[in-house]
Amino acid sequence: MSDRDSGRGDAHLHRLVLFSDAVFAIAITLLAIEIHPPEHWHGAADLFGQMGPKLLSYAVSFAVIGVCWFSHRRVFSRLVRADGGLDFTNFLVLGLIGLLPLGTELLWEQRGGQALPIYVGQVALIGVAMGAVWGYAAFIGKLTEPMPAAEAWFIWLRVTLLPGLMCGLTMFSIVHPWGWALMALLVFGLSWLGRRIVRAPAKAA
Amino acid sequence: MSDRDSGRGDAHLHRLVLFSDAVFAIAITLLAIEIHPPEHWHGAADLFGQMGPKLLSYAVSFAVIGVCWFSHRRVFSRLVRADGGLDFTNFLVLGLIGLLPLGTELLWEQRGGQALPIYVGQVALIGVAMGAVWGYAAFIGKLTEPMPAAEAWFIWLRVTLLPGLMCGLTMFSIVHPWGWALMALLVFGLSWLGRRIVRAPAKAA
Amino acid sequence: MSDRDSGRGDAHLHRLVLFSDAVFAIAITLLAIEIHPPEHWHGAADLFGQMGPKLLSYAVSFAVIGVCWFSHRRVFSRLVRADGGLDFTNFLVLGLIGLLPLGTELLWEQRGGQALPIYVGQVALIGVAMGAVWGYAAFIGKLTEPMPAAEAWFIWLRVTLLPGLMCGLTMFSIVHPWGWALMALLVFGLSWLGRRIVRAPAKAA
Amino acid sequence: MSDRDSGRGDAHLHRLVLFSDAVFAIAITLLAIEIHPPEHWHGAADLFGQMGPKLLSYAVSFAVIGVCWFSHRRVFSRLVRADGGLDFTNFLVLGLIGLLPLGTELLWEQRGGQALPIYVGQVALIGVAMGAVWGYAAFIGKLTEPMPAAEAWFIWLRVTLLPGLMCGLTMFSIVHPWGWALMALLVFGLSWLGRRIVRAPAKAA
């Protein structure tokens, strides 16, 4: 089938992107569905006090899905066609995204800090699955535009590690505020590294 | 990445619009998900009597999301490309839209009028976030088609203020019917102002 | 704004169709969300016996949304551009579609037949709203391809009456089986009439 | 209407695919919506121990929808236009897909094995509905690109039988591990057969 389809790889890729977008959009909107107003409240301060943990969890998970969508969009903007292997690895990502509303619920129900590492682990796993998408596309399925190996490996590293690291650092920084500096360092470092790796072949060419 | 992507800004913009549409569509459909028929009812009049507040809240929030979608569509119809900053500001809008089902529930559960200002505040915040989208796109990211500064500022003002003003005036008008006149004035005034500002440069050109 | 946008009417129309499709798709999928398996059951026969009314309501509402989507697709396939008025009338349709999961719940919870006329009324109202979409598009907004007035009026009639008539006749036919003959007559009659009206101007031309 | 629309079959087909994708995406994301964290848990091992059956059911149903989406995409990639009959048969598929969250709930609530055959039956029914889509498209509506009859029948067989067989074999293999060998045989056998049937006319041509 794959060779048959190759002439229409674009349509396949297009449909896969639309399908993924729909799953991202639904997961992000379902985050709020289990949040209900408290039974009794008096004034806005009391309301927000009572709903604080839920709204915070919502904001965190919204940001997580946002970062994942952003990463997904960037990965797919480098692809020129799709095949069954991409379908499969992409489904792993979507399956984990679909579980985020559940992870978010876990986050706001548990106060003892037990849920935190599980949540961060789930987000890190999304990164790993996204790395599998890119790894398959770049190294096995050859679905990308031509690019230097260094760039392909750099993208793989960024895609795989970023979600887990950013989420873990965010959680860490809430307790230890100097973690934010670490995060800024991470983001700018990766961005600087990315620019160097991307430019290098451009100079060589 | 942003300069790399610039040649495909359209694909990025297209995907962002589709993603936003999906979030709007899901939020608008989830509005009704917490509405259930009453346990006991006799005849249509009794049914609608009991469900009145919920159906009214549904109608109000449906109109709010409708207005926001309309505004979002108009803003994005003026853009020619997208970048990471647009992704980010747009996510703020979507995050607030995703909370509207919750705000709606708040609206129908509270009779004491405490929920009203919170709901209006949430809608006003959506306007502010939408203003951030347009402000970023027009003044920082330069993502729009070329347009006179006056027009860009007028759109920013309209986009930022309209949702909150319209929602607040609607609520106000339910108690003080002459508020509707104020609303009509607002809509027609803005429309007239918009036409003048848009025409002015056309004459000058 | 409308004249400004007119050059891009297609993009507007495209986005409106996608948005509507998403709402239809979500509403149709949410139909099943309140259906849960019974607490206790023994064997498939018992399970289906207990879940019968819910599955039947699901099937009816699925068919209703299917017919409405079909009708919506046909109406929009005749349009060449969109404007704010189309947005508005279309939102009326979507608002009623979004309430169908609620109507379906009403249908399966009430055995006394009280819910039936309310449900049929809701479906009939969707037809009326769809008629408003077509009426606006064809006679006020002039958004359609050029077509003879007879055809436009015929489409308006079909779009407005069909959902309510088909739904009412289906319910009627469950009790009085000869209602199915009436329904077949209605469908074939309208189809025959449609063909005559559409062909007439083709002959004249 | 059908002859009228024929010139725009592509737009119809496109809209039908988007609509189906949205339903698939929503159903797949709703799978997790009824999964909630347990009341009490201590440590990750306990949490996963308690949530095991639900997460396993989620994974199974996610894979089922994934396979169905894959199959749906392949079927529709062979179509060149759409008509009302395709709408209708496709709605049967979507209606069964929309019931999968319910089937999944059944799966994790029942331990006695009673739910298993019902679930497998539901998945097999999706295959049958998908076979109806392809059967209608290939043999009645003539909506496909030209292809040899042998290939059309082979696709029909694969599309009809695969979901039920794969799901049934997976369930069987959990109890009898040698079932996995049977499944591998099935997948590779069908793939080999498919290649032979597709190549044969290519050689003849």
List keywords for this structure.
homotetramer; mainly alpha; 0% strand; globular; disordered N terminus
Put the structure in a nutshell:
With 205 residues, the first copy, chain A, is mostly helical. The first copy, chain A, is built from eight helices and no strands.
Structure description:
4 copies of one chain form a homotetramer. Chain A is mainly α and 205 residues long. Chain A has one domain (2-146). Helices cover 80% and strands 0% of the residues of chain A. The first copy, chain A, is built from 8 helices and no strands. Chain A has helices spanning 2-5, 9-30, 43-77, 84-98, 100-109, 115-140, 149-175, 179-204. Chain A is globular and about 60 Å long. The two termini of chain A are 37 Å apart.
| Discrete helix count of chain A | 8
Mean of residue pLDDT values of chain A: 82
Helix-strand sequence of chain A: HHHHHHHH
Q: Provide the structure class of chain A.
A: mainly alpha
**Count of β-strands of chain A:** 0
Total tally of structural domains of chain A: 1
Biggest sheet layout of chain A: none
Q: Any low-confidence stretches of chain A, pLDDT <50, length ≥5?
A: 1-8, 201-205
- For the termini of chain A, the CA-CA separation is 37 Å
Shape of chain A: globular
The residue fraction in helices of chain A comes out at over 70%
From the structure provided, what is the oligomeric state, counting identical versus distinct chains?
homotetramer
Q: Biggest interface pair, residues each? A: A-B, 33 and 33 residues
Q: Which percent range describes the beta-strand content of chain A?
A: under 5%
Radius of gyration of chain A: 19 Å
